[in-house]
Amino acid sequence: MLICADTQIPFPRSLVYASYRDKLVELVPYMPNVRHITLLSRREVGSNVYTVNDWHGGSEIPAAARVLLSEDMLSWKEYNTWNQADFTVEWRIETHSFTEAVKCSGKNRFLSDDNNTVIESRGELVIDPKKIKGVPFFLTSTIAHVVEDFLAKNIQPNLLAMSAGVRQYLEQDAKD
Description:
Blueprint: E1 2-9, H1 13-22, H2 24-27, E2 34-45, E3 48-57, E4 75-83, E5 88-95, E6 102-113, E7 116-127, H3 137-175
Antiparallel strand pairs: 1-7, 2-3, 3-4, 4-5, 5-6, 6-7
């Protein structure tokens, strides 16, 4: 499944990019589907910044999916490579559930448009039913479909909510 989300934030690219990269924990109150984020590591090498964050979402798992999914599906580890030279971030998500079966990665580009920033988020989510462990084989494709459907309904809206949160955060910061 392809992930695609484009947003625009009415602030300069360097400020928006730095806010995404450096203010993530402070942005949590502006993201309704996120309970908390923990920065696990940060390393700077040249113009690149490497971060690892632990995310804990706040979405509700649909009743029909609760048999198959747990709260762990709402938590994931995110590995980022921020490239200041071209204002991009390459990301990879490692889910806490079905880790071997779920592959999710992508790249966000931060583009300048006058005094606005356009954020293009592109990625891919792939679930391999053969790698779902602890479940009878005849149920794996059903579980893969339920997991993919659940994640698909949350990833793109979360990318858009994060952009809205950055905009609100920067608007509030400008007032202070």
